[in-house]
Structures are given as C-alpha cells and as structure tokens.
C-alpha cells in the first residue's frame, strides 16, 4: 500500500509541484489549503507524513502542529516555511514537528527528507518488530510506542528516536554528533540546540509519569540514559 502524505499549503504554485513530485514517487497525496482541513485529515489517522506550511490563511501552522499532536496524531510532521531563523526552527520542533525545511528548497531534498521521515517513523523499509524492555521503560520499536508500566508515554517522532538510541546504549554516553546524525540525518543544517530542546521535552515527559531512569548530560560530549542506582 502506498504511503499517504498530506500537503498543507495555500499557494497553488507551490502546492502543485509538490503534489506532482510526490505522486511520481509513488505516494498517495492529499492536498488541503487550510489548517482546519489539515486537522481533519490528521484526525483520521491514515496520514503518515504531513508537509506543513506555517503561513496558512486561517491559523498559524505552529498551532496546527500543536493541536495535531494534542489530538493524538503520531505521524511525522515536516514544517516548510520562509521563516528560516534559528528561533523558528527551535519553536517549530518544540511544537512537535519532526523536521524543518526552509523555502526555497529543492524538490530532490524534499523527497529525501520524506523518505528519511518514513524510515525514522517506522513506516519505511526495514522497520523492526522488536519490543525492547528497558528497566522501568518498555519500548515497542515496531509500534513506536513507549510505556511506563501499563501507561503509554506520548512522544513525538524525534523524542522516540532519541530515547531509542539512548536505551540501546544504556549507561553509555552517546555523543551529540551521533544523535544529530542518526535522528536528524546528515541533511540537517540547523542548530544543535534542537537536540537540547528535544532532550528537555523528553526529560519532562519521563519525569511526569514517574520514570526513575534519567537522561543525563555529559558536558561537552553527549547524553546517557541511566537508572536511579547509577
């Protein structure tokens, strides 16, 4: 079955090339022009990647991103915008986005990023069915879900990827460079502060449900997942 991609863009001259390019790649593409319609599509639960413009006529794209996560959308969100400043990148990721592409951009780069998002969200080739118990955490790799006991911890795509890497290297330091390369891939040219934002959100969510494992920063090197007795 073809992967389903939602394009949220109100400018036809930008949307049409995107839609045609993605369809030629074999994706099933839905195009909407407003935030309200985007949230309707995201609520159906059958969209795997959302390509989201921030400058929409009815609401800011960041609000679409935030509300989509609040109502349980678990697929990938890639923000596409002319707001290329570092602050907007960090804010966008803080709202639950998985990637950020500044206009103008090449269609080849867009295709590569969509493929990378599908791989990282478990919808591409080579996704694992392994379930990894990790101390008080239980990480279901295939479903990309994390539990503390019987309670699920809602994580964004980036938060899940970071936690999975740290859990696979429990009690070992994972360098910032490795996390950036594995989670944001080599095409990411933004600030590494995005990693700190993601780590901060991850810590809050783990602490919020009483998880005793801690994500510890090793100054100048990276991060380590360790238990309470470490």
Automatic annotation (TrEMBL):
Residues 127-227 form the OmpR/PhoB-type domain. The modification 4-aspartylphosphate is found at residue 53. Pfam families: Response_reg, Trans_reg_C. Residues 4-118 form the Response regulatory domain. Residues 127-227 bind DNA. Keywords: DNA-binding, Phosphoprotein, Two-component regulatory system. SMART domains: REC, Trans_reg_C. InterPro entries: CheY-like_superfamily (IPR011006), OmpR/PhoB-type_DNA-bd (IPR001867), Sig_transdc_resp-reg_C-effctor (IPR016032), Sig_transdc_resp-reg_receiver (IPR001789), WalR-like (IPR039420), WH-like_DNA-bd_sf (IPR036388). This is Response regulator transcription factor. The lineage of its organism: Bacteria, Bacillati, Actinomycetota, Actinomycetes, Propionibacteriales.
């Amino acid at each position: 079955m073809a992967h389903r991609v939602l394009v949220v863009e109100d400018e036809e001259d930008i949307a049409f090339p995107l839609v045609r390019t993605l369809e030629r790649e074999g994706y099933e593409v839905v195009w909407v022009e407003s935030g309200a319609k985007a949230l309707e599509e995201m609520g159906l639960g059958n969209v795997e990647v959302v390509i989201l413009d921030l400058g929409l006529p009815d609401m800011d794209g960041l609000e679409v991103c935030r509300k989509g996560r609040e109502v349980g959308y678990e697929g990938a969100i890639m923000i596409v915008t002319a707001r290329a400043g570092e602050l907007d990148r960090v804010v966008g990721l803080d709202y639950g986005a998985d990637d950020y592409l500044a206009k103008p951009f090449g269609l080849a780069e867009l295709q590569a990023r969509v493929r990378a998002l599908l791989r990282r969200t478990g919808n591409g080739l080579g996704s694992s069915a392994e379930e990894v118990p990790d101390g008080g955490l239980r990480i279901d790799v295939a479903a990309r879900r994390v539990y503390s006991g019987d309670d699920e911890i809602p994580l964004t795509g980036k938060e899940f990827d970071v936690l999975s890497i740290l859990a696979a290297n429990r009690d070992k330091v994972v360098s910032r460079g490795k996390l950036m390369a594995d989670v944001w891939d080599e095409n990411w040219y933004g600030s590494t502060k995005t990693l700190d934002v993601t780590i901060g959100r991850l810590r809050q969510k783990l602490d919020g449900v009483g998880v005793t494992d801690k994500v510890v920063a090793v100054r100048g090197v990276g991060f380590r997942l360790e238990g309470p007795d470490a």
